[in-house]
Write a structure and sequence with these properties.
alpha+beta, 3-stranded mixed sheet, 9 helices
Amino acid sequence: MRLACMSLALAASLTTIAPARAQSELEDAWSGADLGSARQLFAQAQSAEAEGRWAEARAKLDTVAAIKRTAVVLYHLGVCEQQLGRPRDALNRFEQSLALARTQPHAQVLRLAAAKIATTMQRVPRAALDIEPPLPGTMVLLDGKPLAEGAREVRLNPDQPSTLEVRAPGRKPFIRVILLPEAAYERVRVDLQPDEGPARRSAAATGSPPVGTWIAGATALGLGASGLTTFLVSTALEARGSAPCDPERYVCRSAEAAEDLREAGRLRSVSLGLGIATAAAMGVGVTLWVIDSRKRGLDSTEPSTPLRSIVLEVRPHGAALVGRF
């Protein structure tokens, strides 16, 4: 309660004393329409602060700061962020305000901003980064925004998730969501794992199929050719066995026709079995290819055995694809 009263008192003192100085800063920075718009927005922001409409005040002050950043405007932005429950953002604003107040100069903002920094710093949770290995060119991002080069500590808003991302040349990005309570401190170990790179991963993914896939493919081709041949033979036998007698030639092959039909049925079953076996062999080949591609994506140091030649051999009861490795 005492801290809240002190904060309101500091804000009130700035509100009652700062307008004249703030107006002078605006006049030095702008002219014409920009000056009138900025002065009007700043006055509206002060009214919103006085009535506790902190989000509205911050939005108006952001517009003013986009035109010209002054120590007074940044200080008021810090007060708004603090009242909206974002002490990290408020601390950043107070620090920016203090830095500008030293160059402008502005003794009142120097005093008030320094006091705000001392009290707000105690509320802000922090995460220290232990980055291994420490590499030149390492970049730290918090919620998508890069931090200063060499930053090894991040400040957070309490009880609000933030996304930490660490990038380094030749390493996989380290991404982690951090959520800490007020005033907490945590050490985060960042292990930067080697990245194979898109070219190497692409080469591993698009390499030639493994030997098992070639064997399974050749087997599928041979089975498919045999199944097709068997099917054609069974169709011919079925047509011959179903032909009627020829009365002009006094030929009637009832016994032989029945045998042809039985043989056609047997061959049709064999053809169906070969078709199923062909599909199974193709499935095995695809599965082996997928497994090999994933394995090479993890470790592509061992190249696949090259295929030296592949020959289609026609046999009495079908065809076969023969590969030499």
